[in-house]
Here is the input.
Amino acid sequence: MKIRHYAASDSREIADLFHDAIHAISPGVYSPGQLEAWAPTPPDYESWAARLERSRPFVAMIDNCIVGFIELQADGHIDCLYVHSQHQRQGIAAALFAYASKVAIQHGHTTLSVDASIVAKPFFEQRGFVQTAENSVERNGQYLTNFSMTGPAIPQQSR
Here is the structure.
């Protein structure tokens, strides 16, 4: 696996990865309506291209395919961390997080923040993040639960 910086030619593949990752979440966690509100079908590729041009994520690659991405904002907030559904539980999210953490430290951050989904919350807890709030976020008429969390920029070992 290789981690590199975003290129404009990545936008469609990242939009598809995001859509796939969201729709692979068990409907027992979020309802089908919530999943569709979170990641509408089909993806809005123009909107994704504009977003990614602003956020400039770090991208994980295996065999010239994008398998994950993370967006780290200038203030140390992680806005997105997604791994393709066919590549989960392979250490990709951990590698992306470690890479983003190094960049955050280089920019003087000692702590990071994230608004983690129900399924992402344990990942961040394993890295020393603590919940500061539970949120109900409205997307396209649906309400989704996520958790505001803060944690160390230096990655801790998974427990």
The mean pLDDT is 95. The chain has five helices and seven strands. Residues 55 and 71 are 6 Å apart (CA to CA). The longest strand covers residues 142-152.
